[in-house]
Amino acid sequence: MSMRANQLTAAWLLGIVVWLALMAGSYAWLLRYSFAVGRTSVAPRTVPADLGLSPRLTRPQLLLALHPRCPCSQATVNELAKILTQAPNATDVTVFMYKPSGKPDSWLEGSLLDACRRMGCQIRPDPDGRLAASLGSLTSGGVVLYDAEGQLRYQGGITGSRGHEGDNAGEQGIIEILLGRRSSHQSMPVFGCPIQQPD
User: Fold this and answer.
1) How far apart are CA 135 and CA 4, in angstroms?
2) pLDDT-derived band at 31, boundaries 50, 70, 90
3) Would you say 197 and 141 are in contact if contact means Cβ atoms under 8 Å apart?
4) Within 10 A of 199 (CB to CB), how many other CB atoms are there?
5) Cα–Cα distance, 12 to 16 (Å, whole number)
6) Does residue 108 have a pLDDT over 90?
7) What pLDDT does residue 33 have?
8) Contact 154, 178 (CB under 8 A)
């Protein structure tokens, strides 16, 4: 084989090695991103009075914090739809939709808000994410579930990773609580964008 052919072969092999390394690195980055857990703090043990919910609850209260421009939160909204399908009329749902102070309510408009409206969720604009923060929800997709007596029964996410749908422990735990099969469920990770992220 000529020197020229050897050089071409070596160049091809080097190119393949570099391509494989880039592919492996990209895959590793995507995995790390998908399973990066969002920040939370501890939710109050009872429904905070400053949320403005009725003092006489008749059903459990599922409280969801969303950033309207978080693309991975579409998976959370879709999992919420599954919960409401499997446990119909078992809970009231309030969505605290983040918006920066000074922005009009129209800033919230988008596919996430539309989907929540179709499910009959109560929508509460949440200036600077203060209401979500009072629930310990610092990441879009954070869920807090209180029972009809106002006691905390679940805090965490309802997706298995960032932006991915499918059965997961958080979703199943909430369904079982709403159906009366268990009283509470351990906290699960939340995967999503930071609530206070403006864009």
Assistant:
1) 68
2) very low
3) no
4) 6
5) 6
6) yes
7) 42
8) no
Q: Tell which phi-psi region holds residue 99, choosing left (phi > 0), alpha (psi between -120 and 50) or beta.
A: beta
What pLDDT digit, counting tens, does each position of 4-27 carry? 666 667 666 666 665 555 555 544
Q: Is the pLDDT of residue 30 over 60?
A: no
Determine the Cα–Cα distance for residues 161 and 72; give it in Å rounded to an integer. Answer: 9
Do 179 and 90 form a contact (C-beta atoms < 8 A)? yes
* Secondary structure (DSSP) of 41-99: -PPPSB--GGG---SS-SS-EEEEEE-TT-TTHHHHHHHHHHHHHHSTTS-EEEEEEEE
- Residue 35 pLDDT class (50, 70, 90 cuts): very low
Q: Which two tokens stand for residue 193?
A: 């964008």
Q: What 3-state class would DSSP assign to 102?
A: coil
Please report which helix (H) or strand (E) contains residue 146, including its range: strand 142-146
In sign, the C-alpha dihedral spanning 102, 123, 107, 194 is positive
Q: What is the DSSP string of 147-179?
A: -TTSBEEEEE-SSSBTTB-S--HHHHHHHHHHT
Separation of alpha carbons 106 and 125, rounded Å: 10
